[in-house]
Specification:
mainly beta; Immunoglobulin-like; 1 helix
């Protein structure tokens, strides 16, 4: 009898200690003295300059990396072909004629994308800017368009 009572008490304690698998809750608070606003990433303005790399005219696209609300990670690619470009110091990309050898005589769009580390697909946490670059017909010249 004592044993049955002890088992019954233990079962009641174990069952009472379990929580439901799902539940709802709310947390209401009143903000006083401050204004709440939403924010998004600002687009870094792109600049382009013509430079000489290995005796060939090239184009350097550069920007000032954003640090607010945190440092962004930048990637660059050619829009039409989807080719990824190497970003130097998180703030520039150099387009050489050899890199654009299949695009002679065209103007290409380079897209620079900045993302907030951790949540790159969250709405508002991606920023993009485009720059046009012209590739000469012989492939020896890359100009800022």
């Amino acid at each position: 009898m004592r044993r049955a009572a002890a088992v019954g008490v233990m079962a009641a304690v174990v069952l009472a200690g379990t929580s439901p698998a799902a539940g709802t809750w709310s947390d209401a608070a009143i903000v006083t003295g401050k204004t709440l606003t939403t924010t998004s990433l600002t687009t870094a303005p792109l600049d382009c300059e013509e430079v000489t790399v290995l005796l060939a005219n090239s184009a350097r696209i550069y920007w000032t990396p954003s640090t607010s609300p945190a440092s962004l990670v930048y990637t660059a690619r050619i829009v039409g072909s989807g080719a990824n470009l190497d970003v130097t110091d998180n703030s520039s990309v150099v387009l050489t004629p050899s890199l654009l050898s299949t695009l002679f005589g065209t103007t290409v769009t380079v897209r620079v994308t900045g993302t907030l580390p951790g949540n790159p697909r969250e709405v508002g946490w991606i920023t993009q800017a485009d720059e046009q670059v012209a590739v000469g017909p012989a492939g020896l010249i890359v100009n800022c368009a």
